[in-house]
Each structure stands twice: as C-alpha cells, then as structure tokens.
Design goal:
The protein is an all-alpha fold. It has one domain (24-97). Helices cover 73% and strands 0% of the residues. The chain has 3 helices and no strands. It has helices at 24-36, 38-55, 57-97.
Amino acid sequence: MHQAKVIGKWDFCPELIPKHTYTPARGRATAKWQSKNRDYYNAYQRELHAHRMRTDWDYRVMKEAAWKKGNARRKIKMAKEKEQLKAFLKAEMENKIA
C-alpha cells in the first residue's frame, strides 16, 4: 500500500528542494573572485559572448532586442539633450542681442 505524502512544517521532502541552486555564500565567493581576477574574467566573458553570438540563435535574438531597446532609449535621451541645447543657444543669442 502506498501512503500519501504529508508535507507539514517539519517534514523533509528533498524533491521540493530546487536542484542546482547556489547558496548566498557561493554567490559572495564568486563575486569576490571575479573582482580580484577582473581582467581574466572580462576576457572570458568576451570569448563566451562571441561564441554564443556565433552559435546560439536565441541568444542573438535576445541581444538584438536589448540593443534595440537601449538604442531607442538613447535616441530619446539625445533628442532631449539636443532640444535643451537649442533652447540654451537661442536664449544666449537673445541675451547678446538685447
């Protein structure tokens, strides 16, 4: 006879523990190592990015969407700055004339 599984406050159910997760200590240790080995880690990330851009279509699509989103934000920011510069220059020209 198969007994129903009781999941209470103190029951141990290993199947409910997510597999392949990192502890906070592991994350801190990784961040510490990356900060101490910045040049090596940056070179590794550049190589990984180049490899994934060549071989992983989903990665390329994700990056393209992010680039388009970032470029759109930059265009809006640049347009605002350009308008502010035009307004500033116009005010300066009016002050010189007056």
